[in-house]
Amino acid sequence: MSGHSKWATTKHQKAAKDAKRGKLFAKLIKNIEVAARAGGGDPDGNPTLYDAIQKARKTSVPIDNIDRAVKRGSGAEAGGADWQTIMYEGYGANGVALLIECLTDNRNRAAMEVRTAMTRNGGSMADPGSVAYLFTRKGVVLVPGDGRSEDDVLMAVLDAGAEEVNDLGEAFEVVSEAGDLVPVRTALQDAGIDYESAEMSFLPSVQVELDEDGARKVLRLVDALEDLDDVQNVYANFDVSDEVLEAVGAE
C-alpha cells in the first residue's frame, strides 16, 4: 500500500497526543458544523454528521464542543460560520500531484495562505483540473489491527460494497465507492468490528515513487499545508518504501 497512506495512518494514530491537538479539534468541529448544516442535526438521519461526530469523539474532542457544533450547524444555536469548501491543485517535488481541500469563511485568506505555503516549501500552484483527474473520490474506513486478520475485515465488508482491504501494518484500510461508505461502515459495526474513522477521501490512480530526499521535501510541504487553519485535507499521489518512510519519520 502507498507510503502516503501509511504516513497518514501514523499521523492519525498520534493525533490524540499531538501538540497541535487544538488545531485538529478546530478542523473536526468545522466538519461537524458543515455536516449538520447540509443534512440536519440528527446523526441517525445524517450519515455524514454521524461519521464526523464519531471521528471527533475518537480524537477526544469534548462532547460539549461537539454538541455546540451540531447546534450551530443546524441553526439551533447562533454563531455558525458560512463555511465554503474550496479545492486547490498543485505540485510538489518530483512532480507529485496535490489536492488541497479547504473549508473556509474567507476565500481570499485561504488562497493567499495556500499559495504562500506552496511557494515557501518548494511547491507550485496548478490550474483547476490539471491535477484533479489523477484522483478518484472514494469511501475510506480505517480499522485498527487489534489482533484481527485481513480476512476477518474482508469477510465483514465483502457484501457491503468494499472494493479492497489494505494492510497498513497497525491498521486496515477499507476502500469502497463513495456511495458505499455507509453500508461498509455499518457492516463493520454489525460484525462487532470497531473502526478508527469513516470518511470520503481522494485516492490517486497513478503514484510517484520517492527517494529519501524527495519524500522529505514532499512531506515538509504537506505538513506546512496541513498546518493552515483553512486546510482540512491534503491528498497527494506519492509512494515511498518502508525504508524511506522509516528514515524520514525518524527525523
| CATH-derived architecture of the largest domain | 2-Layer Sandwich
What class do helices, strands and sheet pairing give?
alpha+beta
Mean residue pLDDT = 88
Bulk shape: globular
The total count of strands amounts to: 10
Please tell me how large the radius of gyration is: 18 Å
Main beta sheet strand tally, sense and closure: 4 strands, antiparallel
Percent of residues in beta strands: 15-25%
Tally the structural domains.
Answer: 3
CATH level-four homologous superfamily name of the largest domain: YebC, transcriptional regulation domain
Q: Which parts are unreliable, with pLDDT below 50 for 5 consecutive residues or more?
A: none
What does this structure look like?
44% of the residues lie in helices and 24% in strands. With 251 residues, it is of the alpha+beta class. It folds into 3 domains: 3-74, Orthogonal Bundle (Arc Repressor Mutant, subunit A); 84-130 and 206-242, Alpha-Beta Plaits; 134-204, 2-Layer Sandwich (Alpha-Beta Plaits), CATH 3.30.70. Helix 2 (21-39) packs antiparallel against helix 3 and helix 2 runs parallel beside helix 4. It is globular. The model has no long low-confidence stretch (mean pLDDT 88).
